[in-house]
Inverse folding.
């Protein structure tokens, strides 16, 4: 058996290797009970019983996305179904639990990111801070967060992603080459159009991380790939950070407006779009948080490190930060040069440091 489970505080770390079917089989075997429990809570209890969505509608939403997945990724889901005791349909649904929420409910709170390097770190390594924000309901699911490390045997680059049980598509991830990714949604600028005929952006990003050993190759990959919805893919290696503003109608790579400081919330900044700034800042979700993070960037210029970044992520909006006390589901501080992540799940697990190097070792 090639799968292993570790614990860092309360957070599960799942390390899987082999071909893609074997990776899925080990996932299903090791997390059999957790997969079923999370499916019951998020799909049966919330979406079906509380929101009165039908199973057929949920299956239709998720099936459209899954049908366009590359074969190698479909193999993971088939493997999970073989050993988890769950139908393949339900395994597929669980991967898209957050997407179901996004397309069926209005209460979605966007994420925020801040990256610092060069003069802003006083010559120290690049440090990247990320808040993943979603409705307060998801604070109940701390038991189901996991750091998933996959090491395919086809020569792909080992990749770690942080999210919830059953999620194979990525929102927050780093590969062994030190490329870090953190997504923000961008409906405020990119609109609400989702293209069912275009492959899922979050799964394409997993492919990029498995295949790209540097930012030059990642840049080429994302620029030739359409997104199925409005996304901001915030990226960094040990040298610099970038925001790829990525709606279905194009892609722009936004570099730092201030050399060594990049801030991204939930609207597009690149002026070449010709898209106006959002008029309303509902729940202070994008304009206020961007302004606050830019101010904090200048306040701590020259001294940024992982500890200062953690303190900034812990700062609520009302105190000049960017964190929603009720809707920040998890937080990550990444240092690509060291291949380390600091992870916090508010109200469940305080900050813990994860060194990815031992998990990436083949």
């Amino acid at each position: 058996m090639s799968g292993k489970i570790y614990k860092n505080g309360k957070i599960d770390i799942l390390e899987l290797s082999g071909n893609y079917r074997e990776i899925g089989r080990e996932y299903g075997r090791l997390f059999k009970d957790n997969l079923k429990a999370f499916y019951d809570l998020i799909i049966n209890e919330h979406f079906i019983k509380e929101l009165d969505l039908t199973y057929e509608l949920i299956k239709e939403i998720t099936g459209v996305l899954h049908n366009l997945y590359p074969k190698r990724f479909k193999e993971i889901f088939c493997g999970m179904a073989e050993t988890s005791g769950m139908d393949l349909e339900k395994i597929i649904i669980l991967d898209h639990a957050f997407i179901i929420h996004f397309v069926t409910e209005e209460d979605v709170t966007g994420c925020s990111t801040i990256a610092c390097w060069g003069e802003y770190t006083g010559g120290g390594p690049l440090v990247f801070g990320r808040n993943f924000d979603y409705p307060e309901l998801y604070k109940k699911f701390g038991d189901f967060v996991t750091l998933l490390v996959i090491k395919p045997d086809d020569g792909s680059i080992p990749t770690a992603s942080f999210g919830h049980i059953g999620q194979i598509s990525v929102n927050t991830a780093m590969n062994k080459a030190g490329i870090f990714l953190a997504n923000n949604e961008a409906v405020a600028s990119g609109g609400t159009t989702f293209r069912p005929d275009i492959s899922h952006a979050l799964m394409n990003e997993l492919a990029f991380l498995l295949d790209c050993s540097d930012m030059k190759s990642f840049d080429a990959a994302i620029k030739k790939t359409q997104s199925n919805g409005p996304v901001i893919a915030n990226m960094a290696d040990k040298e610099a950070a970038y925001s790829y503003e990525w709606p279905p109608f194009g892609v722009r790579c936004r570099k730092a407006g201030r050399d060594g400081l990049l801030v991204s919330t939930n609207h597009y900044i690149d002026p070449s779009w010709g898209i106006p700034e959002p008029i309303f800042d509902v729940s202070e979700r994008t304009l206020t948080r961007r302004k606050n993070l830019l101010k904090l960037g200048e306040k701590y210029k020259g001294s940024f490190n992982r500890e200062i970044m953690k303190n900034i992520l812990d700062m609520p909006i009302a105190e000049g930060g960017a964190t929603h006390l009720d809707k920040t589901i998890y937080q990550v501080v990444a240092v690509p040069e060291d291949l380390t992540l600091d992870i916090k799940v508010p109200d469940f697990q305080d900050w813990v440091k994860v060194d990815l190097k031992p998990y990436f070792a083949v």
